[in-house]
């Protein structure tokens, strides 16, 4: 299966218009101010061998306020699954998990949180061998590993404060 890392259409300056009925594309719209909300979704999609397109909203564009008004709850990420539009990262994950016949989406959230902790404190799992093994096992899954090693992932900051 062909995968696009970074995904097709990477670095656009705003959200794409809503897709028409019958369109099959998957698009993840996120803001560079605090993008980590979308990361579990990306890991689920990559691990399930799926493709998607990123709609990047810069802080500058977001702060103009026009896009915010169009977003349910006034926040990103936004996920478009064809003509079906979803907000709230856990709702997006639940939708995708259901679509891919998975019982749970929580693994990707837990993995994301543990990966973040490891960035901030690389030894934080030293006293938790089961959790450390869990992270290693998931990180080694071939499709997920390819995503984790992709430029798109490496270049994406944890948040927009420029400290990572
Ligand atoms: N509960 C939401 C939180 C989303 C969230 O915190 N979004 C932030 C960062 S992407 C945002 O849109 N901030 C801009 C704002 O609130 O104006 C989720 O999990 O999707």
Query: Beta-sheet strand percentage?
Result: 5-15%
What is the spatial order of strands in the main beta sheet? Answer: 2-1-3-4
The CATH superfamily is identified as Glutaredoxin
Q: What do we call the CATH topology? A: Glutaredoxin
CATH architectural category: 3-Layer(aba) Sandwich
Domains counted in the coordinates: how many? 1
List the ligand species.
glutathione
Helix content: 40-55%
What count of helical segments does DSSP give? 8
Shape: globular
CATH class: Alpha Beta
Helix/strand/pairing category: alpha+beta
Ranges where pLDDT stays below 50 over 5 or more residues in a row are 1-12
One letter per element, helices H and strands E, the order comes to EHEHHEEHHHHH
Average residue pLDDT: 85
Distance between the termini: 32 Å
Domain GST C-terminal: 17-158
Protein name: glutathione transferase
Organism: Phrynosoma platyrhinos
Domain GST N-terminal: 25-104
Structure, explained:
- The protein is an alpha+beta fold and 164 residues long.
- It has a single domain (26-154), classed as Glutaredoxin, CATH 3.40.30.10.
- Helix content is 41%, strand content 12%.
- The protein is built from eight helices and four strands; from the N terminus they run βαβααββααααα.
- Strands 2-1-3-4 form a four-stranded mixed β-sheet.
- Helix 1 (39-47) links the parallel strand 1 and strand 2.
- Helix 1 runs parallel beside helix 4 (89-99).
- It starts with 25 loop residues before the first strand and ends in a 9-residue tail after the last helix.
- Bound molecules: glutathione.
- Residues 25-104 form the GST N-terminal domain.
- It is an enzyme of class 2 (transferase).
- Keywords: Transferase.
- It comes from Phrynosoma platyrhinos (Desert horned lizard).
């Amino acid at each position: 299966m062909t995968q696009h890392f970074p995904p097709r259409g990477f670095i656009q300056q705003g959200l794409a218009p809503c897709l028409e009925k019958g369109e099959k594309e998957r698009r993840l719209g996120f803001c560079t101010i605090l993008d980590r909300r979308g990361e579990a979704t990306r890991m689920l999609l990559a691990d399930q061998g799926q493709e998607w397109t990123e709609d990047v909203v810069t802080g500058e564009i977001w702060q103009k306020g026009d896009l915010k008004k169009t977003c349910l709850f006034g926040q990103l990420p936004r996920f478009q699954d064809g003509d079906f539009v979803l907000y709230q990262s856990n709702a997006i994950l639940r939708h995708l998990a259901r679509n891919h016949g998975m019982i749970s989406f929580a693994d990707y959230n837990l993995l994301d949180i543990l990966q973040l902790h490891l960035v901030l404190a690389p030894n934080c799992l030293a006293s938790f061998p089961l959790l450390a093994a869990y992270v290693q096992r998931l990180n080694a899954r071939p499709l997920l590993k390819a995503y984790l090693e992709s430029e798109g992932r490496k270049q994406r900051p944890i948040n927009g404060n420029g400290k990572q």
